[in-house]
Write a structure and sequence with these properties.
Helices cover 43% and strands 15% of the residues. A hairpin with a 2-residue loop joins β17 and β18.
Length: 522
């Protein structure tokens, strides 16, 4: 695919530009810290994103980290123009979005502590792939971390077969919209044909089809219908990075590196088959039939230590959206269970760990420094502050972190307003997106939050100039103008007084929900 083809492709069908939580420097620095390295401070770092689209990943970072510097590069002029408008409207002076090819990057760009390349590597020609690796080798600071995502075998053998079928059918049509429509039509046809096939082919086909039928039009167009989609085996990717002086650090989603989830027999076999971490990762891909990786690279001089010591957690920040499944007894070692936001359940009998989970629940979605978490947890179980047992708590948190999604770790605190305040203020990029009609915005956890109809109208008003009365007046006016519908008992309200009364009643809970979603600032 030529540069010109790429430009037209992404100009014709732009990606919806949103944040990727796993690419945030705080998450990358956490992985590096756990594996024994000293990554650059997140609050004062330089970040380069290759293939930044409209800046949906960088804009929230730049707003949250005003003392850091961000550069984004993308070949789509349409998306860069859209991103530059957002940068101006948000008043960000620490972010530069540049309409350029990745192959244009030279020494004038300087060096970066974190280099991000999400959703690009497998979808560009070989020379651009080589340039991506060269950029990481030439522009990464000594302690920096590079993130590259890419499609992998063996899982993509199956997905690639479906891609070939879709391209065979859809590329006969002229416009992007028609091609996507026809690709989906073929998926429906294949799903019907495989509905009664109980064999291995039928099962695999149905699983892949269900996955792709839920994907957006821009995903189908660029992932399945583009000329280039070039998966690799993990060992091949590392084999190309190593000669450039780059070394494997780990995966952005660190739980995928854990082999214990497959049971003792698989873990014992891996110890025999795999001589090092690279081979272990490759055999894990074979076991999982893995389709996608988010690999972190560092300079060859770095020496990651994958045997994680508990004391590496001491300088990190902890959070958990887990909730106890029943009342927790802190006075004894009675069992307790905590359920994560995704539904995973973890049981424990340790009093200190139970106290820590209750403390984190009180602070969610804010982060708590490990040292503070230890102190508060000890207080909950009636042990003096000097009676510290950091190793035990750290080990428990690490086990939960690696084995489930119950615990999250950050290298820097997640800061936002815990309560709405007298004149609430929402994140500037969230206000902008909501004002433009988008129902999805980024929060301070660098996650995508879907807004309700009321919140979509409310968020643009939260610029710190309006109290609750003024907000109710503005929303009442929006309802009168037909921009918002307020219902009661299944019927839309018409009387302005009733509308305002209903809005006043719902405004407080709506603002509290935005605070819990980490969308408000002080």
């Amino acid at each position: 695919m030529t540069d010109a083809a790429a430009t037209n492709s992404y100009d014709d069908v732009p990606y919806e530009s949103l944040p990727f939580a796993q690419t945030h420097p705080s998450r990358l620095a956490t992985v590096a810290t756990l594996f024994g390295l000293r990554p650059p401070p997140v609050n004062r770092c330089r970040v380069l994103e290759l293939g930044c689209a409209a800046g949906g990943n960088l804009v929230p970072m730049a707003e949250a980290l005003p003392d850091s510097w961000f550069v984004g590069v993308d070949l789509s002029a349409r998306q860069i123009e859209e991103g530059e408008r957002a940068v101006r409207k948000c008043g960000l002076n620490n972010l530069s979005l540049r309409h350029a090819s990745i192959t244009d990057i030279d020494e004038t760009y300087g060096h970066f502590d974190y280099i991000l390349c999400h959703g690009v590597f497998s979808w560009v020609p070989r020379d651009v792939q080589e340039k991506i690796l060269d950029v990481c080798a030439d522009h990464l600071t000594p302690n920096g971390v590079a993130y590259i995502s890419y499609n992998t075998y063996p899982g993509w053998h199956m997905r690639g077969m479906i891609r070939d079928m879709m391209r065979h059918h859809a590329l006969r049509f002229d416009t992007p919209l028609r091609r996507v429509e026809q690709a989906r039509a073929l998926l429906d046809f294949l799903a019907q044909s495989a509905r009664k096939d109980a064999g291995a082919y039928g099962v695999l086909l149905r699983n892949e089809l269900e996955f792709m039928r839920d994907q957006s039009d821009h995903y189908i167009y660029h992932e399945q219908l583009e000329d280039v989609n070039d998966p690799v085996y993990f060992h091949q990717f590392i084999g190309r990075a190593t000669p450039r002086g780059l070394k494997y650090l780990g995966e952005a989603r660190i739980s995928t590196m854990v082999s214990g989830n497959f049971g003792a027999d698989v873990q014992k076999a891996l110890e025999v088959l795999a001589a090092d971490q690279i081979q272990t990762e490759q055999y894990l891909d074979f076991v999982r039939n893995r389709t996608f990786r988010e690999t972190l690279l560092v300079r060859a001089e770095q020496a990651p230590d994958w045997s994680v010591a508990p004391d590496r957690l001491y300088g990190l920040h902890v959070t958990s959206g887990g909730k106890a499944t029943k009342p927790v007894d802190l006075a004894s070692e009675a069992p307790a269970q905590f359920q994560s936001r995704s539904g995973m359940v973890l049981g424990t009998t340790g009093r200190l760990f139970k106290a820590a989970m209750l403390t984190l629940a009180e602070e969610w979605p804010a982060t708590v420094p490990f040292v503070e978490l230890l102190s508060r947890s000890l207080a909950k179980i009636g042990r003096p502050a000097h009676d510290e047992d950091p190793q035990a708590l750290a080990l428990g948190l690490l086990n939960a972190y690696f084995a489930s999604d119950l615990i999250e770790l950050f290298a820097a605190p997640v800061t936002f307003a815990r309560a709405p305040g007298e004149k609430p203020t929402a994140l500037s990029h969230a206000r902008l997106r909501a004002a433009e009609g988008h129902a999805t915005v980024a929060n301070r956890r660098h996650e995508v939050v879907r807004l309700s109809d009321l919140s979509q109208r409310l968020v643009p008003l939260l610029d710190g100039t309006r109290d609750r009365d003024a907000l109710a007046d503005a929303l009442t006016a929006a309802t009168a103008a037909g921009d918002l519908s307020i219902q009661k008992g299944g019927h839309s309200l018409i009387d302005p007084a009733e509308i305002r009364a209903a809005l006043v009643a719902t405004l407080g809970p709506a603002l509290d929900a935005l605070a819990r979603d980490a969308l408000l600032v002080g």
